[in-house]
Specification:
Oligomer: single chain
Radius of gyration: 28 Å
Strand content: 5-15%
Number of domains: 2
Strand order of the largest sheet: 1-2-3-4
Shape: rod-shaped
Number of strands: 4
Bound molecules: zinc ion
Structural class: alpha+beta
């Protein structure tokens, strides 16, 4: 860290910029926040908060995939859903479709 950078960071702090716990991926120095913008005082890298939110969302989706059901559980679940549908269904064509689907599930489950 050179003197210019230290001076710059000191000036930023004096101008009410906030030093954050997030570090610049390039310079490994703390990022600053001012006027809702997060940036690196050294390389002027701008931290995109939206990207971070997006990443977190993706991680969340991954977690859901990890706790995915066993194939047999999925079939049982679908079977239940179809039975529920069948109870309410009045359309003959759709009733036949549901029954066919249920037959297939039964076959798959063995
Ligand atoms: Zn930087």
């Amino acid at each position: 860290m050179n003197d210019d950078l230290i001076k710059k960071m000191a000036n930023l702090l004096l101008s009410k910029a906030k030093m954050l716990e997030i570090h610049c991926p390039t310079c490994k120095i703390p990022l600053f926040e001012k006027d809702g913008k997060i940036f690196c005082p050294s390389c002027n890298y701008v931290f995109n908060q939206e990207t971070k939110v997006e990443e977190q969302r993706e991680k969340h989706v991954e977690k859901e995939v990890v706790v995915s059901l066993e194939p047999l559980d999925v079939l049982t679940m679908k079977e239940k859903e179809l039975f529920e549908k069948l109870k309410r269904e009045k359309n003959l064509k759709r009733i036949i479709l549901i029954l066919k689907a249920l037959k297939l599930i039964k076959e798959l489950k063995g």
